[in-house]
Design brief:
Length: 267
């Protein structure tokens, strides 16, 4: 039977409901025939069905990808292998040996309940020959609220990806926070504040942190307070200078001031 006839028969099924029962039997078999031949006719005959075919295939592919299984970490560095096997069990060991963390999963594994804080998400645009390209730039801080702190940035076309990328970058930038009690009013010797005064810079922003007595709390603006809490500092006085409404700069200044506690140099 030719395709033309099959089509006619299909038309009959739509139009003629009053057809004889014997006819309907043959129609059933005919329509089945047209289904099997559908793949041939798609490309040549009708654009509509051809497009549908493409969409179906694309949907199938998307459905295959959908159930995201838990990503199993396969280390790509020697340190990663050591951490995964349990030979290296703390970030302190890594820092004492001066090893470089090149996989963010290392930090995730060693500090399982690390927290993150989205400091800033902004839109960056660039002019291209096809219009503008819009991307999201985000700044994320991570910390375990007890002596580990990191800041990272990420730029991606989608906001979620930008935040994920910034979080991973922040995990790679993690540094130990030198906690202590440098307050002459307190002198308790526990790790509720910082051991001495410190100054950090980020952009035009300058932040000064001064040790405070126990029970003081974080005397700082909201962003700085959140960042210091993430780092594990509980009592501190602060002064800030410059355009402190620029969140990325504020975050960088806090990170720098924490780094300065170790006597590390800028950059
Ligand atoms: Zn104290």
């Amino acid at each position: 039977m030719s395709e033309q006839e099959v089509k006619n028969n299909n038309k009959n099924t739509k139009e003629g409901n009053s057809a004889a029962p014997s006819n309907s039997d043959s129609r059933g078999s005919d329509s089945r025939g047209s289904d099997s031949r559908g793949s041939d006719s798609r490309g040549s005959d009708s654009r509509g069905s051809g497009y549908r075919g493409n969409r179906d295939r694309r949907n199938d592919r998307r459905r295959e990808r959908k159930p995201e299984p838990e990503v199993i970490w396969t280390p790509r560095t020697r340190l990663g292998t050591l951490v995964q096997s349990g030979s290296v069990q703390s970030l302190d060991t890594i820092f004492q040996n001066g090893w470089k963390i090149k996989e963010y999963e290392i930090v995730n594994k060693l500090l399982p309940d690390i927290k993150s804080f989205v400091v800033h998400v902004g839109v960056v645009q660039k002019q291209t020959d096809a219009g503008e390209s819009t991307r999201f730039k985000s700044v994320v801080a991570v910390g375990d609220e007890n002596g580990w702190f990191g800041i990272g940035t990420g730029k991606k076309p989608q906001m979620k990806n930008a935040i994920d990328s910034a979080t991973q970058n922040a995990l790679l930038n993690i540094i130990p926070v030198k906690l202590g009690c440098g307050s002459w009013e307190c002198r308790c010797g526990t790790n509720h504040s910082i051991p001495h005064r410190t100054v950090g810079r980020g952009g035009s922003v300058k932040i000064e942190l001064i040790p405070g007595p126990k029970g003081l709390g974080l005397v700082a603006g909201e962003t700085i307070r959140n960042l210091l809490a993430l780092a594990g500092v509980k009592d501190v006085w602060s002064k800030s200078f410059g355009s402190t409404s620029t969140m990325p700069s504020v975050a960088n200044a806090v990170y720098d001031s924490i780094r300065q506690l170790h006597g590390m140099s800028l950059q």
